[in-house]
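Comment on this:
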Amino acid sequence: MKISTRGRYSLRMMIDLAQHYNDSYIALKDISERQDISKKYLEQIIPFLNRSNLLLANKGHMGGYKLAKAPSEITVREILVSAEGSLAPVSCMDNNPNLCEKCGECVTLPIYQGLYDVVNKYFDSITLEDIINRQVSSFTYNI
């Protein structure tokens, strides 16, 4: 599994907003400058985060963006799924139920399902609050 640039930048943007959670709406240019990500690229990320109801937007002079929920309520998995669409290691797992004709007799599917479960549990165990508080020890997932 490889997290795309969109996924990585979405996470960085959301961390930035979490760090400024108690501020008013944050202008995209400020996030762009702090994160060294082009404003144009951030504009492309916003629709994905909006569809997942992770952001609040305010237009106008004092406009910008802020988190729709507290940093303690937003997980890394939510952000990455929003940006990536899926964290499934193989395409046949993108649909539920699995539409692959061979899924009933596929001997490799349980391997990929196990990986998928571990990835989801790991990313679900990390919130934006954990990241900004640097609670690195909570990032460890024991199999």
